[in-house]
Every structure is written in structure tokens, then in C-alpha cells.
Amino acid sequence: MRCYTLFFAVISAATFGCAQTISGGDATFHSSGLGSCGKSYSDADFVVAVDHATMSKYAGTITDPMRNPLCGRQMVITSPDNKVITVTVEDTCVTCSVGSVDLTRGAFQALAPLSVGIIHGISWTLV
């Protein structure tokens, strides 16, 4: 029985680390500040706030948001016109729908002008 338990634990750990691409979300932007992961960042930093449902899914039973396993992870975001950026997860977006993200101004501008406001149809992958 112990071997089977160990086998499933290894499979579960391996699955958690696999890259999964999420498509069809929106990207918005926000001003810099102190993120839910406990770090301050500037408008020029390439930082992302991930939707609350996704952050909660990865947190599991962790109640301290600064210990969320997504904090500090890299995310590759692709716009509908195939512009690609890499950002760091440092915040939670409580108003974002599942699969959508909120970027710092600098990160958003690498994909589109701020005047666009919302980029529809992005995809992202945690790396």
C-alpha cells in the first residue's frame, strides 16, 4: 500500500508542475503598489495580477496570500496579434474573470497602447 501512495504522490507532484495554456481571457492594466504576494512593484515592472479563482486554486489550504505557490512564478502572455511578454505573478485581481489578468502599465504597453484599455483574447502559460 505504501508504494501505491508514494506513486500517486509523485504523479500528483509532477502534474502540478506541468504547463497549461489558458486561452480566451482579457488583459487590463492597473497602477503599481503593494501586491497580495507582499512585494511592492512599479508601473515599469512586468508584473501580473492573476484572477482570484486561479490564485485560490493554487493556494489550496494556505491562508496567507503571501505564501501562495503562484507568487513569484513566471507567466508568458501572448496577445491576439502574437506579441509575447513574460511577467511575474505578484498580485491577485479580485475583479478579473477566470483566465483574465491585470498587468502593470509597462507590461500592458508591451502588448498594446494603454488607450486600448482591454486586450481581448489573450492566452497565458505559467512557466
Automatic annotation (TrEMBL):
- By its UniProt entry, which InterPro entries does this protein fall under? Expansin_CellWall, RlpA-like_sf
Record's keyword annotation contains Plastid: no
- Keywords, ordered alphabetically: Signal
Which domain of life does the protein's organism represent?
Eukaryota
Signal sequence segment: 1-19
- Name listed for the protein in its UniProt record: RlpA-like protein double-psi beta-barrel domain-containing protein
Q: What is the lineage of its organism?
A: Eukaryota, Fungi, Dikarya, Basidiomycota, Agaricomycotina
